[in-house]
Every structure is written in structure tokens, then in C-alpha cells.
Amino acid sequence: MKRIIIIALVLVGCNQAEEPIEHPEVKWTKEQSVHLGENIAIEEEIDIRLYLEMHKDWKMTKTGSGLRYFVYEEGDVNGEFAKAGQIAEIEYSIELLDGTECYKTEPDEYEEMVIDRSDVERGVQEGVKKLKVGDRAKFIIPSHIGHGLLGDMNKIPPLNTIVVDIHLLGIKK
User: Fold this and answer.
1) How many CA atoms lie within 13 A of 61 on its CB side?
2) CA atoms of 157 and 47, how far apart (whole Å)
């Protein structure tokens, strides 16, 4: 008897037409987007300031874009700053503000990037142009000039500030 009831319920359930689900209309304005962006930026700024409280010896300079950087070991003091279009040879490590390491070049290896013409984060592009060959620096890159709303779809989550430790090994013209 139980089997007949269960089979009947399954047959009746399968034969019923599904009613379309109505989604309420969402009205989202440009002003709401701007407000959301401002709130995200404020929260990220607070996180960066708290992080810097734990690293008081870092003498950071903040650019107009929000990048913070400081050169903690100078290389060629008479050298030229890296420029757009040049190929930079770099060693680096990238971590989140909580210390989670995301990426790092292998020992005795480096990566090349074309300054302002590669898919490297905008904050790294900007920061490398503040360096001379041999410089070692720290960059704090807020998400809007890093990996943004989506993260990198791998190790860097959405809306995360990253800390980059970078060594500019060389420049090719």
C-alpha cells in the first residue's frame, strides 16, 4: 500500500507543470553604486591603517591612486626609474593583509613584465615605476588597483588588499 501511494505521489508530482518563478524587479541606481564603492573604499582604508599600525617601521608613501609603497633597500642610487614600455625583471611575493601567502617567485628565478602593457595588477605597474634597478620595496595595493570585485579567481579573494614585496632585478629597454 505504501508503494502505491509513493508511486502515485511521484507520478502526480512529475506531471504537474512548473509555474514560472517571478523575480521582483530590482532598481539599482548609479548613486547606489557610487555609495557602495565609497563604503568599500572606507572599509579597505581602515583595514590598511590597522595593518600599518602593526608595521610602524614601514615609511609608506601614498599615491593619488591609493597605492602605498616604500623602498626598504636601495639599489642603484644613480640609476633611472623604470619607465612605461620597458621590460622589468622582478622577484616578488604577494600576500593578503592577514599574512596568507598567495604567490611567490621561485628562488633564483624571476618574472618579466612589460611596464604598463601587461596583465599585471595596475598597482604593481604603478609601483614598479617608483623603483630603480636593485631596489627592494613593499607595496600595499587596495583592491580597486589590484584584483577588484572578482579577485584573481584563484588565490586572491574578491575585494582584498594585497601586500607585494618586490625586488627589481633589471630592466630591458
Assistant:
1) 10
2) 15
pLDDT in tens, 78-90: 999 999 999 999 9
**Cβ neighbourhood burial of 131 (10 Å; 0-12, 13-18, 19+):** buried
Query: Vertex 7, ends 5 and 8: CA angle to 5°?
Result: 65
CB 132 within 8 A of CB 52: no
User: Are the C-beta atoms of residues 121 and 67 closer than 8 Å to each other?
Assistant: no
CATH of residue 79 = 3.10.50.40
* Tens of pLDDT, residues 26-79: 888 999 988 988 999 999 999 999 999 999 999 999 999 999 999 999 999 899
What is the residue range of 152's domain?
35-172
pTM of the model: 0.82
- The total number of structural domains that make up the chain: 1
DSSP bridge partners of 140: 68, 163
Beta strands at 101-104 and 87-96: parallel, antiparallel or unpaired: antiparallel
The SS3 call for residue 31 is helix
- Residue indicated by cell numbers 624571476: 110
